Amino acid sequence: MAVLEPFLKQLKQSGSIMFSLLRPAYSNCRLCGRSMKPIVRAETYADASYARYQLPIIPELCESCNRSIAWIKDVRCLICGRAVHCDDCIRRVDAGFIWNRSAVRYDSVMRSWLANYKYQGQEHLEPLLIDMLEPMFKQMTTELISRLNIKVKPRRYKYMPDILTGFDQMKHHAAACWDIVTYVPISEERASERGFNQAQRLAAGLARRYGLPIASLLLRTRHTTRQSFKTRLERLRDTRMLFTAEPAAAALLTSIYTDKYSHASTFFTLEKQPLRVLLVDDIYTTGSTANSCAITLHACSGITLELYVLTWARS
């Protein structure tokens, strides 16, 4: 038996090496850096107004970090996208946008993630925030197509029915739903201080993934202090006349609208619909910023617009 011990030891070491080679390699969590395994989870949304589907999972995050995401599961207010009863929208007057949808609740964890990205120079978190925004964008697109009965053009290659599924199918629907993507601008002082506009980055990342046109349509007229330090009344006052349209905004919107219906022939007429604009921002609090942006765009354009808002967090 003693003679076999070196052989058995060598065999055990060889087996361990082979097992380590065959074992799937797990990457590290993008947020906390810990090694992670594939996540399997079957939690669902309970809101009856939406189809039941699995709670979003960010593959680049570990189980612990995924569970810390405060996803908005139940949309209680169909105007502002809030997960609880909303009194603000009952008092809503002079509305410029149709509705807002947000991906997460702005709790302490989500606040720290966004602060690290915006103020602590952790720009590597940007793809993560876009990943978190994406599930609500897809849900919003599906909801809008269903509610407004938007006609989606037939797919180009009908003889390959299984090719455009999943992500490609959503790109197809997004192109039919959204005419242009834009974002809430920041002041020159804030851009100089931070080095980037987080709303622009989120909008650009989302538009790039789904092949949607994106443009800067708004300018900020003055610098203001952070909205997070203000009361609701102060926010409403502060956002009055806060934005103006880009000089080329009206011409661009008119051009998109004209191109949309330019293929109609004399033999048939397409039923013209408003131009659908998706406005992106990082946080929705009272909706005063989004509403001010929307009213400004309505005023600058000679065509009918429908503005929808997509934000990363709802406070």
From TrEMBL:
Spell out the SUPFAM superfamilies in the cross-references: PRTase-like
Report the domain of life of the source organism. Answer: Bacteria
Q: Which family does it belong to?
A: Belongs to the ComF/GntX family.
**Protein name (record):** Amidophosphoribosyltransferase
Recorded source organism is Paenibacillus abyssi
